[in-house]
User: Fold this.
Amino acid sequence: MIRSLGAVFLLLLSFAAPVMAQSGSAPTIPQTALIQPADLAAQLQRGETPQLVQVGFKVMYDEAHIPGSIYAGPTGKAEGVASLKQAATSFDKDKPLVIYCGCCPWTRCPNVAGAWKTLTELGFKNLKVLYIAENFGADWAEKGYPTTHG
Assistant:
């Protein structure tokens, strides 16, 4: 019995390891670069509007996103990174920039770390990442923060 449970654990770990390795970089984003949903919502309410970029999946952006944000593509994939780089050419490097995904829990997000790395390498110094602990719906939309659909 114990031997079969160990085999099951190893089998599950073999499937989870690539996901863990890919998403394990999300927590490497410095704490000082994170912004909490309540803090960003308060900024928006005060009229302080940073550049907002959704770096997740298109279906999520189409379903709901922060008003004024642009879609840049899922940066967990090379095509998404290329799309973000293209979009970044129109960003003001001196203006605050907030990126977010929200596809899944923070520790498993395949997109924010790649976006952070790309924009940091492009010289964005006033860059923040919206810390979405669970997902965009639970941590943003369901809390009544500004949301646009479609």
Q: What stands out?
A: The longest strand covers residues 51-54. Residues 1-27 have pLDDT under 50 and may be disordered. Residues 102 and 135 are 4 Å apart (CA to CA). The first helix runs from residue 2 to 23.
